[in-house]
Every structure is written in C-alpha cells, then in structure tokens.
Amino acid sequence: MELEHWSDYYSMAWNYSVGTVGVVMNFILIYIIRNNTPEYMKTYAIVLQTGSYWDLITAFSAIITSARYFATGKSAVLMFHGLGKYLPFDKEINSQICFTFFTIEMHGFLFSIFIIIYCLYYRKRVVTRSYDPISKRSIQIFCIASTMFMIVYIFLMLYSHLIPLSTIDELLKTSRPELINSTWIYFAIMDLSEFQDSLTEGFSMTQSTFIMIYLIYCRHKILKTLKTLNLSPATMELQKSLMKTLLIQTFIPIFHILFTIRYAYVVFTNSAQTPFFENFIETTIPVLAAITPLITLYFIKPYRIVLTKYFWSGYNCTDCCGFSNF
C-alpha cells in the first residue's frame, strides 16, 4: 500500500475548500433565517434551520478528518489527513478525535438526506392539503426529536467503536504493517458486519433509490394539485421554485450512491483498491453540506434578496422580508 500518494493532497485541498465553503455559507444561511425570515415562512424555516446546523457540523467535520478509507477483510481502516492530524495530543487521542468527527460527518450527511425527504413531504402536504396545515409546534417537536435521536445514535456508535490504538495495531500487523510506525493518524472499524454499521451502510445504499422514487411521487402530486388551484402567478412561481430547490438537492445523494456501491463491492469481494479511490470515497459527503445553503439562498427569494443586499450595496431592496408575493 502506498502511504503517500498524490491523491492525498487533492483530497485534502478538496475537503478543506469545500468544507470551508460549507461552514461559511451555513453560518450565513442560519443568520439570515434567524433574522430575515418572512412571517409566512416561519414554520418551514424551522426545518431549513435544523438542516443548516447539521450541514455546518458536517462541513466542519470534513475539514477535521479528510479521511482515506479502505477495507481489509471485515474491517475498515481510516487514515486521516485533515486538521485533526495536527492536534497537540498523542497519536491515540488524535485518532479517536478524528474518528469522532468522521462519525459525526457520516451521520450528519445521512441526517441531511433525511431532512430533504421531510422537506419533500412538507411541500407535498402544504400544496395537497392546504386545508390542514402542519402546526409550528409539530415541526419543532419533529426537529428536536429527530436531532436527539441522531445524537443518541452517534453516541452509541462511538461507545461501541472507540477502542485502544494497540488493538488496531494488532489488526494492521497482518494487513498493513507499514502503517503502524508511520506518521499517519489512523483508526479502524473492527467489524463492519455489526448491527450499527450494517444499518448505516444499508441506509447509505438505499436512500438514493428511495429519495428518487419519493421525489417523483411528490412532484407528480404537487404539479397535479397546482393545476387545479386558482393561484396567482407569484404563488405558482413560489411552489415551483421550492420544488426546484429540492430537486437539485437530491442529485448529491444520488451521485454519492455510486461510490457507496463501489465501496460495498470492494468490501464484499476483497477487490484491489487504489489510493485514489480510497481518498475519493469521502469527497461527496461535504458537497451536500456546501451546496445545500447555496441552493437555498439562491432559490428562496427573500433570502436571496437579503444576501444580495449585504454583498451588493447598489441593489434596490426596500422590504427584504415583506415579499408576500413570493
């Protein structure tokens, strides 16, 4: 195995740059949501803000980890070349910190997909059952409950996987002994067949198919209902813009499934791996965290107007939050 490879530097540059964009843009989006959301969008903004917090954490975690990921038998080894590598602790503590952020990053990505699915449901419900709106309190309870569930799940994953570095070295003695005395910060998932890992991998591999089918279903129901409603052109444009936002966001999980399938093939067949592929597996994860706030800020008009006002002083904006015709 090549411990040093040219793709390591491209992976670092990618995760640092995309992760930084994700952190900055999610900070901006959260600030705008909290301070410039029109009254008629307050309920939906709760879901957007919850997703933005998780995207921010996911993007930051990608900067800390920037992992190179390869399988060895039933185990998976992570080699970290993110900022966590340079923390002022010993090798074992740094490896556990990096693995903690890697776990948060992976599950933050999955939670973001879950939020997209819920947004699809919310948009369909608003359009097709406008007579029975979802209350603000229900949305708050949903966001808090789902967030707490994910935090507990991440804690359980860490509790069952944080092991001494000496145990990992025993595994590597027969598979990658050159890694033991290297300068790399590394960690290992000892058994990928454990329930928690199987559940995570299973969701990673099925979410794209599900989200695509559900997207087609929701889009059909929404467009069918809109044709029967007597809506103003501005309101019609609102619904189409929100649907377009979700449509673009779903492309990232669908793109990610290609690498998940490739990884699963490598794990179950013990196929040859290359350093380039080992570095490439994680690269799609911070992309969703970086693109989602950009899409939201561009397609949701009140937020776009506020953002334009902040960065372009010559823009004419008399009432950034009062666009009832959006």
How many strands? 3
Number of H/I helices: 11
Shape: elongated
Q: What proportion of the residues form beta strands (DSSP E)?
A: 5-15%
**Biggest sheet character:** 3 strands, antiparallel
C-alpha-based Rg, rounded: 22 Å
Distance between the termini: 56 Å
Structural class category: mainly alpha
CATH superfamily: Rhodopsin 7-helix transmembrane proteins
Helix content: over 70%
CATH topology: Rhopdopsin 7-helix transmembrane proteins
Please indicate the count of domains.
Answer: 1
Reading off the top of the CATH hierarchy, the class is best stated as: Mainly Alpha
What is the H/E string? HHEEHHHEHHHHHH
Task: Summarize this structure briefly.
It is a multi-pass membrane protein. It is found in: Membrane. The chain has 326 residues and is mainly α.
Structural features, described:
This protein is mostly helical. It has one domain (6-308): Rhodopsin 7-helix transmembrane proteins (Rhopdopsin 7-helix transmembrane proteins), CATH 1.20.1070. Helices cover 71% and strands 5% of the residues. It is built from 11 helices and 3 strands; from the N terminus they run H-H-E-E-H-H-H-E-H-H-H-H-H-H. The chain has a 3-stranded antiparallel sheet with strand order 1-2-3. The protein starts with 5 loop residues before the first helix and ends in a 15-residue tail after the last helix. Residues 315-326 have low confidence and may be disordered. Belongs to the nematode receptor-like protein srd family. Keywords: Membrane, Transmembrane, Transmembrane helix. InterPro entries: 7TM_GPCR_serpentine_rcpt_Srd, Nematode_rcpt-like_delta. It is found in: Membrane.
